[in-house]
Amino acid sequence: MTIIFPKESLRVYPKHLTPAYRSTVKRSPSQALVVIPHTLSELTGPIYGHNAIQENDNDLTKQHKGEPLGERIIVHGHVYDEDKRPVPDTLVEIWQANACGRYVHIVDQHPAPLDPNFTGAGRTVTDKNGYYRFITVKPGAYPWGNHHNAWRPNHIHFSVFGHSFLSRLVTQMYFPGDYLFPFDPIFNSVTDEKARNRMISTFDLENTIPDWALCFRWDIVLRGREATPLDTDTH
Amino acid sequence: MSEIITPSQTVGPFFAYGLTPKGRAKWDPNGSYSWKETVGDNLVTPDASGEKIHIEGRITDGDGAPISDAMIEIWQADAQGRYAHPRDNRALPNTQFKGFGRSATTKDGVYGFDTIKPGPVPGPNGKSQAPHIVVCIFSRGMLRQIYTRLYFSDEPANATDPILALVPAERRNTLIAHKETRGGATVYRFDIRVQGKDETVFFDI
After folding, report:
1. Which terminus of chain B is less hemmed in, N or C, by CB atoms within 10 Å?
2. What residues of A are in contact with residue B14 (Cβ under 8 Å)?
3. Tell me, what's the pLDDT at B91?
4. Which of B1, B8, B22, B90 would best serve as a mutation to test chain A binding (most A beta carbons within 10 A)?
5. Does any domain span residue B6?
6. CATH of segment(s) A3-234
7. What is the DSSP letter of A114?
8. How many domains does chain B have?
């Protein structure tokens, strides 16, 4: 089986220069990117197995003496490739604001409290079915300086590896029905509506744990699919 | 099939406590949090053979200002030119050497890695590629990662590298890391200019 990484799949990605998100203006390449073939250097990539993580790395509510404040939630789903095949044994890292919308980062000094029982970072490795699961609290919305009265919708940052260094993905998971969606230039940097909606988790009543936690499901699809004989001929 | 992938979003300014907690970026507001680092900026493992090197550089934006909240990831072969990945099926005696590293920048936009100088690796059409490192950059203000390559200034093989050959000659120098010696250690300096004058070459891959 040969995995290939067609560039056409990146069509739904945001443009490097998206002026509504102001910081892209000086941080996007101005010269055309140089097209090169995928060599062994691009077709391989780091592999992090279960020895990369510790117990409770995937439970953000158990990393301190007490429990964090906020709405306890389960976030789970599968990591797939473009053939919808599960991506097993791949590292998934997350980070997020606390329930008040404050990040444990010195740069975030907006007037909302830190929670001594919440760092907001987690990691796990997918199982043989590509399945991952985190327990955390629902992050709050927070203001940012992009434009007047700018607020980010609630989101959790995700970092995922996959089949090669080309399938590397850093993205954000959003929550269904967020009233801030129409106003957020980062969310709307994905201009294709269907693609944009793939960043929104679904409320998963079935996997909610009664009297304990609500549940959201979010599947992630990474670059990479099996080459067909036709692809092999043309490469 | 091309309509199903999950789109990229920016890493944002606050990734350090999740992705590079023990790295060079200052993030901890009160010194009370600790978090194990999974991926760091020292790639050297006890069993890794080859020349130990330090890679250092500064990343700047279109105004030439340092990018103080970038994350640089590198992916490389070992000194014998082999990747720690099943797609590279040659024998791999450096069993612990992964070849992957991650460095957050300081407030001055500086990143750095301790690693092993990679060997030449197979390229397209049976040609060899000059020793190089794949570099991937994430930052606030980048909605998707950008890829470049680092080549070494003291490698004659650069002249015949099939990928460098695809880069306009006048821009190739942006991909060359310059060798310096600092206190007996070998340092390769690789500055990254995201935009503007002497803009680094980035790849469409």
Report:
1. N
2. 95, 97, 103, 105, 107-108, 157
3. 66
4. B8
5. no
6. 2.60.130.10
7. -
8. 1
